[in-house]
Design a protein that fits this description.
This protein has 417 residues and is mainly alpha-helical. The chain has one domain. The protein contains 17 helices and no strands. α7 runs antiparallel to α8.
Length: 417
């Protein structure tokens, strides 16, 4: 019951945030063309990858720490790493001309907002981790809603003013930065003070203690992030920004809610699963109850999408966007499995088996690239991508379940009180 109640709290906040993002995307699709949305989405793909890189994935170490002092050191570490990497990235991009020349036009023209937006997302992700650690799920929901409102408001204003791609880019930046600043007020003040006053020597030691997250989780999640963004980038390169915009609308309409709602479950699941492992050496009961909740929660919506996606997108976005609905029908099984498997994969981190995740992500990247490289028909490429990715998620579920068995399979010992 505690798990369901916590999931419900976070789920309501995520649902509200996604409702805002959903409505804003419908309006944007009617005032911006597919080419503008395609170029912006390709730029946002680079932002997403950069935001993962900037954290070093040390924010995943929050639940490996012991007490407030450890978590404060980890929080300060993530911010220091993000700031350092952001400054280095700006230096490389602006001082080395060849680094700019090889980038696509829609990236090279907006390098500074790209880095600043990625930095804002990295810090925002850290705040989310702190709120989960403190079991402040109401604050977590508030932060998600504020982020959605900030981005939607800035981008809609840019759309109405006909500012095009620059308006969408800077709207994203303003929304992320303002929402991140607002979320800081939700975090416990004593914890913030503790983090600010954590000595750099302790931060350095924390970096070394949790280096496995940078060694294994960072490459794995970078590959995962690139794999998820690769379809938009390859479609833009092969078929132009228009088709990329069509696909991007589909991905944002489906991927946004799936990611945020799945993350809502993840925020609760990882705290409960980590506690189970400390007490019992395994978390299979929490794993199975969460699996059942996720599978049943998403079944009906995705069945409806599978059979009526093209009609639904035509109604929502108007004439000319039916291709997005066809993409939605093709991708619906993939997004269903993503919704179910992604939160449960956190058992891999709890089990300290990041090498498994790295190998899985590397194979997934190859599969994704080949799906869009082997065919010259956009629908056939998306179908092949969806089928292969779905199969990979089934394998992911098996790996995460084996990790949830804990002491039975991996030989864990119950932590001493």
């Amino acid at each position: 019951m505690v798990l369901v109640k916590r999931v419900g709290t976070v789920f309501l906040g995520a649902a509200a945030a996604q409702a805002i993002a959903f409505v804003s995307m419908i309006v944007l699709a009617r005032i911006c063309g597919p080419e503008e949305i395609g170029s912006f989405s390709a730029w946002l793909s680079f932002v997403t990858v950069a935001s993962v890189f900037f954290t070093g994935r040390y924010e995943l170490a929050f639940f490996s720490g012991r007490g407030a002092n450890d978590s404060a050191a980890i929080g300060k570490l993530v911010v220091c790493v993000a700031l350092t990497l952001a400054v280095i990235s700006i230096g490389i991009l602006f001082l080395i001309d060849t680094a700019v020349v090889v980038l696509p036009v829609y990236v090279s023209e907006y390098l500074l907002p790209l880095v600043m937006t990625a930095l804002g997302i990295a810090v925002n992700r850290t705040i989310m981790g702190v709120l989960v650690l403190q079991q402040n799920f109401a604050g977590l929901s508030y932060s998600r809603v504020i982020l959605s409102i900030g981005v939607a408001s800035a981008q809609l204003a840019a759309g109405w003013l006909a500012l095009g791609v620059p308006g969408l880019v800077y709207g994203q930046l303003v929304g992320v930065i303002s929402a991140t600043c607002a979320s800081m007020f939700v975090v416990d003040r004593q914890w913030l003070w503790l983090a600010v006053n954590t000595p750099l020597s302790v931060v350095k030691q924390t970096l070394i203690v949790h280096v496995r997250f940078a060694q294994f989780s960072l490459p794995a999640d970078l590959i995962s992030s690139i794999s998820s963004q690769l379809p938009v980038l390859m479609i833009a390169a092969s078929f132009g920004p228009g088709p990329a915009g069509m696909y991007a609308i589909t991905y944002r309409i489906l991927g946004g809610p799936v990611s945020m709602l799945a993350n809502s479950v993840l925020e609760v699941f990882k705290e409960q699963a980590a506690r189970d492992v400390r007490q019992f050496g395994q978390c299979v009961s929490t794993y199975l109850s969460t699996l059942l909740l996720l599978a049943s929660l998403a079944l009906l919506p995705f069945l409806m999408l599978w059979f009526g996606g093209e009609w639904l997108f035509g109604v929502l976005f108007g004439a000319g966007w039916e291709a997005s609905g066809r993409f939605a029908e093709i991708l619906s099984p993939l997004f269903y499995l993503s919704f179910v498997a992604s939160p449960l994969s956190y058992t891999i981190y709890i089990a300290q088996k990041q090498s498994y995740d790295l190998a899985w992500q590397a194979i997934l990247f190859i599969v994704t690239f080949l799906a869009f490289f082997l065919t010259d028909n956009i629908y056939e490429s998306v179908k092949l991508y969806a089928y292969c990715y779905s199969a990979m998620y089934c394998i992911y579920l098996y790996i995460s379940y084996r990790c949830a068995l804990g002491s039975v399979v991996l030989g864990w010992k119950r932590a001493k009180n």
